[in-house]
Amino acid sequence: MFDIRPIDSWWVFPGFQIDHVATGLDKPTNIAVVPRPGRSDDSPLLYVTELYGQVKVVTNDCRVHTYAEGLLNYQPDNALPGTGESGVTGICIEPESGDLFVTMLYLEGGVYKGKVVRMQGRGGLRMEKATTVIDGIPQSRQAHQIQAPTIGPDGKLYVNVADGYDTPEKAQDDNDLRGKILRLNLDGTVPDDNPVPGSPIYAKGFRNPFGAAWRRSDRSLYITDNGPRTDDRIARVVPGGNYGWSPDMRRNSLFWWHFTQAPTALDFMQGGQFPEAFDDQLFVALAGPARYRAPCVKGKKVVKMQLNEDGTGVRSYDDFIVYIGGAVAMPVGLQFGPDGLYFTDLHGESFPEEGKKVGNIFRVRPLEGGGR
């Protein structure tokens, strides 16, 4: 069951509380909450990628099980920031089948490449079959890799791909998949109605687009994109759009932080999990630096934004969750489930080089009669 004791190391917006869902995770990066979880204690509640080669599943009784392991064919390290930021990152659930789409790096011929793998498992507790959907995308171990997959309202697979770190010019190259948002059929083939016939490229000009989420009110994809030293941003992605990188990080953006915050996952409150006043608001995890203790002017929080109806700007901006524990916690993964907002804390409260498996998953939910 959820641990509902007070969580002293996190401040949360008035009218809400934080529940401790799971701990003992090894760099929990992104989460995919089951949209309609079963009622039994051993039914899957959510899946989480562990950066260095595993996918875990948390069941309704808050027990953690290994869904898939040994997913990396190279030895990762703890150099954070740096080469230790690569591995198994993005994850989403195909709503009809319950299959997982997971993004990761692999090593081939001395070159790091990115791929998307479709995973299937009976009962949702253990992977029994894995099929590669797309692979062969040149990548880097410096975090700029293949990132979030999502399933759009059209049933297509969308995939965020970064620029490869030392190849920013590839984000503008129509013959290269780096620095792009891809649109694919679920089997990896290219849809006939893509912006450019025969090309999987949906939009271009991105640097390191970590997070992705669909807004129901305008049926649009929104992403986070990390800048070099300035101009982390959020953008609404349109088919055939060019978002300016390299070198511009503001082109076609709806919001940017001049002082970088390391935005990671994002999601919209659009399922009634919070009171009506929060409907259609956007929640964004700001990871901040891996080695700085709180209080910290960069990140280590989740913010909420109210967007214009047409997705062209931000009407309001507030802190929603803030880490106040005095250590190095980093919120990274974030997604709404049927009963609240779930988020991951990548390192827990220990330094990354310590190699401790103390990453956490939390849930935020309104107090009874609160959050209004």
Structure description:
The chain has a domain at 1-26 and 265-372. The protein has no helices and 25 strands. The strands form six sheets. A five-stranded antiparallel β-sheet has the order 1-22-21-20-19, with no helix packed on it. It is mostly beta strands.
Question: What is the string of SSEs from the N terminus onward?
Answer: EEEEEEEEEEEEEEEEEEEEEEEEE
Largest sheet: 5 strands, antiparallel
Shape: globular
User: Largest beta sheet: what is the strand line-up?
Assistant: 1-22-21-20-19
What's the rounded overall pLDDT mean? 94
Overall helicity = under 10%
Can you describe this structure in just a few lines?
With 372 residues, the chain is mostly beta strands. Helix content is 0%, strand content 43%. It has no helices and 25 strands.
Please give a handful of descriptors for the protein shown.
25 strands, 5-stranded antiparallel sheet, mainly beta, 372 residues, 4-stranded antiparallel sheet, single chain, 43% strand, globular
